[in-house]
Amino acid sequence: LAKTTQPISMDSYEGQEVNITCSHNNIATNDYITWYQQFPSQGPRFIIQGYKTKVTNEVASLFIPADRKSSTLSLPRVSLSDTAVYYCLVGGNRDDKIIFGKGTRLHILP
Amino acid sequence: EAQVTQNPRYLITVTGKKLTVTCSQNMNHEYMSWYRQDPGLGLRQIYYSMNVEVTDKGDVPEGYKVSRKEKRNFPLILESPSPNQTSLYFCASSRNRGGTSTQYFGPGTRLTVL
Fold first, then answer.
1. CB of B74 within 8 A of CB of B49?
2. Which residues contact A66 (CB under 8 A, 6 or more apart)?
3. Which ranges of chain A would DSSP assign to H, the alpha helix?
4. What is the model's pLDDT at position B90?
5. Are A18 and B79 contacting, i.e. CB atoms less than 8 angstroms apart?
6. pLDDT < 50 stretches in chain B
7. Chain B residue with minimum CA distance to A49
């Protein structure tokens, strides 16, 4: 399992685009990058997953450079309800354990 | 509705009194796991199970036991709880093992050990 490093916390304002970067220098060839969102007192929920280049869904975009040693979760035009902890996970389909880490606490200001 | 359920949601107990937190999923998932969440430490995996009768230790297994006798259930057992096990606990399940399979989480169990 590749170790990931994320900022501990970030602040932004409503209506802004927020980018959260995750470093994973030891990512393996078969590893995918997955992001989860967790609201206070709730379990995390899946946001997006990708392997390379760019993935977009109705909630976010995920940018992965060619070397795959980092990834960036992009949240367009955030609102107060996007205040949450965001976790970056790196792993492959042969992994037994799952490591969430400490995540990034995103605080959206009015 | 596809979901993971946990019971109880809140529990206050005393040191040494055995307790069980139940977890059940209705999605026929093979992989189930337990996490604890503590301030500043993020989510840490306690135990996981890749299928019936197959369980293994996560990163913080000390003081916990699990069993997987049926595919849908994965109870967490604290045989002699201690105050350092006061935490927020989450159960999760996924179709398959591995970091690529989406994890579905339960609502959490807030445990206080006095």
1. yes
2. A52
3. none
4. 97
5. no
6. none
7. B100
